[in-house]
Specification:
Blueprint lengths: L1 E5 L3 H13 L3 E5 L2 H10 L4 E5 L7 H11 L5 E5 L4 H9 L4 E4 L4 H16 L9
Parallel strand pairs: 1-2, 1-3, 3-4, 4-5
Length: 129
């Protein structure tokens, strides 16, 4: 599966990208909102991890554009602002949830596992087998 990681902080993006690789998936990385949209429209993307505060275009603008073309793609917002108002803005822009920074690798790994497995095997139910 292909994950679009949109984060302008190199240390944070490194953590995210390592986790994606550990889970056996691929990623493309963008450091600003404009580059993110360009990559999204050029590549086959299955999931988006999106910082709220980005250069050029903010995360909310990027999410709205992505959501306009794909109502089902998972979008995880990340931000140092974990207020209820920011969480609501993320939902309003089309995000699935907001994960606060500093990121907890175990939480990110669990969220990615649940989304990537579900998207990769849409016809398999938990009771199957």
């Amino acid at each position: 599966m292909n994950v679009l990681v949109v984060e302008d902080n190199k240390a944070v993006s490194l953590i995210i990208c390592r986790i994606i690789e550990e889970l056996g998936h691929q990623y493309v990385l963008a450091a600003d909102g404009e580059a993110a949209l360009r990559l999204y429209h050029q590549r086959d993307i299955d999931l988006v991890i999106l910082d709220v505060e980005l250069p050029i275009l903010d995360g909310f603008t990027v999410a709205r554009d992505v959501r306009n073309g794909n109502a089902h793609i998972p979008i995880l917002f990340i931000s140092g602002n974990s207020s209820e108002a920011c969480f609501q803005q993320c939902l309003d822009a089309g995000g699935d949830t907001l994960m606060p920074k500093p990121l907890r690798p175990s939480e990110l790994r669990a969220w990615l596992n649940s989304r990537l497995v579900t998207n990769n095997n849409p016809h398999i139910s938990p009771a199957a087998g």
